[in-house]
Design brief:
Radius of gyration: 21 Å
Number of helices: 17
Shape: globular
Helix content: 55-70%
Length: 282
């Protein structure tokens, strides 16, 4: 059955739709047509559910088909706010390394046209991860607001950009976040990472030195001690801004000069080495 022919009873509530999605393989021609068709389903609950589930399907090593990325980009401008938010989240977080013609324009349109703050913030993060030049001005304007701390999404967008011109404003908002005793610890990890990513002096000698010590420990079978904590913090930093992994790798490598075993571990066996190899281009 083609997706446009599905009735509401066929796909809602979630169980029937989930059952359908479990039978589809996104890289197969027939399944691809069904998935693209579902993004045009007349009921917003179906479109929103698909936007949420699509990035979780098995797309294979090559990643999602361009048609699916483009379909999600169209949902960014959907009439329903829930659909727009789900599509923006998928493109800002789940598929942040993928692009399609017109995708950034669709995200940028949400910054000016959308009356839903969550949609605007997700769209801004999607632009920032794609290094779109429109993101910097939008992040700067959001940080300049005086009506309380900005959302974690806006701060994460600042971290993804990593522009030092944002650092002072980021620190002001970060202090408000860190003073909130009810804040989610996972959000605070992001906030602290963003402070480091926008710092004109770099992500911090404490993290770079700590990861270098961890490589020495691993290479020479010594206890890692506190250096594991440095890697955990650096990992949080690179989760916000993966494209920085290559430069961070070189900064750590400079600290391992004269220790070929540790340097080999860094480049070929460490988690940082794997992240740098997979890092998107700047």
């Amino acid at each position: 059955m083609l997706a446009p022919e599905l009735t509401l009873a066929d796909v809602v509530p979630g169980r029937p739709l989930e059952a359908l999605l479990r039978t589809l393989r996104p890289n197969a021609d027939g399944s691809l047509a069904v998935l693209v068709g579902l993004t045009e389903h007349p009921h917003p609950a179906v479109r929103a559910s698909l936007a949420q589930r699509l990035p979780l399907l098995p797309h294979g090593a090559a990643g999602p088909a361009p048609e699916l990325v483009s379909a999600l980009a169209r949902l960014v401008g959907d009439d329903d706010a829930g659909v727009r938010e789900a599509a923006c989240f998928a493109l800002a977080t789940m598929w942040r390394d993928h692009d399609a013609p017109g995708l950034c324009d669709a995200l940028a349109a949400r910054l000016e046209e959308d009356d839903d703050e969550e949609v605007r913030d997700e769209a801004l993060l999607g632009l920032a991860h794609r290094r779109d030049p429109r993101a910097l001005a939008a992040v700067g304007a959001a940080l300049a607001r005086a009506d309380g701390p900005v959302s974690r999404l806006v701060l994460e967008a600042a971290g993804a950009l990593g522009d030092p011109c944002l650092h002072d404003a980021v620190r002001t908002h970060a202090e408000a976040w860190l003073a909130d005793s009810g804040a989610d610890p996972a959000d605070l990890d992001v906030v602290e990472a963003v402070v480091r990513l926008t710092d004109p002096d770099g992500v911090g000698d404490d993290l770079l030195d700590g990861v270098a010590d961890l490589c020495r420990a691993r290479a020479h079978a010594r206890p890692a001690g506190r250096s594991v904590a440095a890697w955990e913090q650096l990992d949080a930093v690179l989760d916000v801004s993966p494209h920085r992994a290559r430069q961070v790798l070189e900064d750590v490598a400079a600290r391992l000069h004269g220790d070929p075993a540790a340097l080999h571990h860094l480049r070929h066996s460490s988690a940082l080495g794997q992240l740098a190899a997979a890092a998107p281009g700047v």
